[in-house]
Amino acid sequence: MTDLFSLHLVYKQTDLWLRTEGKPDRQKVETYLKQAYEDIEAYVAKDSNFLSSLHPYEVRETAPDIIKAMSEYASKANVGPMAGVAGAIAEYIGKRLSSTHRIILCNNGGDIYYESPEEQWVFLSAPGSPFHNKIKICVPSAVKGKGLCTSSGASGHSVNMGRAYAVTILAGNAFSADVWATAMSNQIRSHEDIDRILSVCKEQDDIEGVVILVDDYLGIWGDIGLSRVE
To answer: Which of 19, 47, 90, 126 is the right S-S partner for 4, CB 3.0 to 4.6 Å?
Structure first.
């Protein structure tokens, strides 16, 4: 596996870990991060309902591309557009690094956009779970990029109405992965919901894989591998 460079940035609500083949330009990454925030904050200043809505929300025709994508994918998962904000920022930055880096893993607080010609391994963080930091996820190669995003009803600052320690979704982009992780996590009250949620995931064209951690139980489906952390 290719050795990667690492970069850590904290800005407002974002705690970003970036790993790339080739050393990333810190100043450029900071600029991309601030641009993403500027696009989102400027739109919210004009349309505050975008920020507070917990349901699909139609945005104005003049909205920035990142806002339109958040709205589009949130509608598919039947959640509010801010459910996908972390994945949106991760993808916004990652896409802009594509021309200079062959491998990119842009991790925004557990919501990841990645590009790689080879499979990648990612640790699964689920505070409170007996699986916390004891397993890692293998995701497939993604030359054009994919999203791997996690939502939790037990930790984190995002709005979540479920009880899962973690629901991790693999999708064709980070916008989609983030909103579907939130949507599925919201529906989980106990381990008895695992099979039902796996079935729902299988029916969604956008979802390529899922890992669910609830109580002492684990559910998995799709193009995802697991391994114990030695």
So the answer is: 19
The CATH number given to whatever domain includes residue 156 is 3.10.520.10
DSSP structure string for 4-44: -EEEEEEETTEEEEEEESS---HHHHHHHHHHHHHHHHHHH
10-residue stretch averages of pLDDT, the chain, 230 residues long = 91 96 96 98 97 95 97 97 97 96 96 96 84 89 96 61 86 98 94 96 96 93 90
Q: In what order do the strands lie in the sheet with 166-171?
A: 5-11, 14-20, 104-108, 111-116, 142-151, 166-171, 207-214, 217-222
Largest distance between two CA atoms of the chain? 51
Question: Whole-prediction pTM value?
Answer: 0.93
Distance between alpha carbon 61 and the CA centroid of its chain, in Å?
25
Q: What angle do CA 142, 120, 90 make, to 5 degrees?
A: 65
- Residues of the domain holding 113: 5-228
CB 127 within 8 A of CB 45: no
Write the CB contacts of 27 (distance below 8 Å, at least 6 apart in sequence): none
Domain count, the chain: 1
CA distance 35 to 229: 37
Instruction: Name the 3-class secondary structure at 106.
Output: strand
User: 74 — phi, psi (to 5°)?
Assistant: -65, -35
What residues form DSSP beta bridges with 89? Answer: none
